[in-house]
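Sequence in, structure out.
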Amino acid sequence: MDQGAFMAAAALTKRWISVNTAIAAGVLVVSGCSAVEGNGTSASPTTAIPSRTSSPPLTAEQLKALALKANEVPRAHSVPIQDPVPKSEQRTFPPVSDASCQTALDVLGGKTASAAVIQIFNWKRDIWPGGSTLASYEGGKAQRAFRQLQDSLETCRSFTGVGWTGKFHARIVVDKAPDVGDEALSFHQLSQLPDGGGLRDAHHVYVRVGNTTADFEKLNVGDKAQFPLALVEKQVDRLSSALHG
């Protein structure tokens, strides 16, 4: 869903380890594709993949096995997979100024997930990494998490908070998401780096497939970030096959 000033690629990879690093990101530009979207935008949920949430949630080991392999990501020189940092080792920050924005950040961090794994994409010829968080949920919790994120993004317009780089300001803009999974959201997380470091853009695609979610992120500074849609589709198809047979 980035340690220090977000200006070193090694530090940026920590975004996918803890939800608190997402809080430090700054500005969040969001887009959604589901039954109802904010800011006057609407779309229909994807119907190609049936929504089934009654099967047992995937374990962390199963999620790792379903993650993309290095030879499937030719644009990256490595795609390591790791477990989230234990809560006891995570650094915490005060809640951001807007409650709905805080809810969005919590959902991106897989706060209510039964299991989660993190994959980092170290792109070739690009110091700014990408990543994905695969998370599984019991019962209807994945649907609930998606709805919480969607509802939060309809009301979260701007907020301030304290993160790794100190105090920051953020804003929210809703846009269109790709037609993948049972339902999907997409968002650009924008922040002005300190000392004239440029505009930081983190593009997210958040997808639900049954009782599993996948949050993809691509970082860039000074130019628009875009997580490769082909990789999103490949990962979502793999999750769908595992969940729906």
